[in-house]
Amino acid sequence: MFMGLLAAVEGMYQVLLRRLPALPSPPDATGHLPANLARVYWSLYEPGGSMTVKPVWPWTVAWTVTRTLVSKPSRMDVPPGWTLADAIARRWRPEGSERLLLHERLTLGIWLTRHWTAEELLAFEARRMPLGHGLRDLPEAARHYLGREASDLTLAEAALLVTMNDDPRWRKHPECFIDRLQPRRDGRLRHMRMAGLMTPEEEAEARAQPVVLAIAPLARHPCPPP
Length: 226
What we know:
mainly alpha
C-alpha cells in the first residue's frame, strides 16, 4: 500500500510536470558565481554547510511530512537545496505566461532539485534579485557598489554585497547606512561559521576588514531623511 501511495505521488508529479507551460534553462557554466560569493549566497537560503542539492522524490516528501507531524520540530526540515529551488520557482515566469500557481511552483521546484546543481541554482537566482539602482545581477552590483569583479571579492566583501539586500533603503543608499551594514555583514559571517560554511579563522579575518564602498559621490545619491 505504501509503495502504491509513493507511485501515485510520482505519477501526479509527472502529470503536473507535463502541464507546465515551459521549463527554465540552466545557466552556462561560465555564469556560475565565484566561490566566495557562492558560499555567502548559499547561506541566505540553506542552513547546511554543504553546497549540494538533494533531489526531491516521493519518499522524500513522505518522510518530511511524517517527521513533521510526529516530532513537531520548530521548523520543517526540508532537503538541502529545496529552499533555493522554491525561491526560483516562486519568481520565475515563463515568457508570455502568468506567474506560476502553487501546484505549478511546487512541481517546478521538485524538477529543479532533480536536474540542476547548486551552482546552477545560485547563478540563476543571483541574476534575478533586486539590488537597487536598477541592478538585478550580483556580479554587476559588485562592480557598482564595490568597484571590483565578483571573482575578486573576499568573503567579507561578498557578505557585505549580499547584506545590502536586507533593506530597500540600504540597497538604494548603502553609503548612508555604513553603521548598520557592518553589524549585519558580521552577523552573516557568524551565521556562515555556525553553518559550517567557513572556519573560525576565516570569520575572524573577514570581520576585521572595514566596510568600504566605491560608488558615486553623495551629491549624486543624496541620503534619505532619517
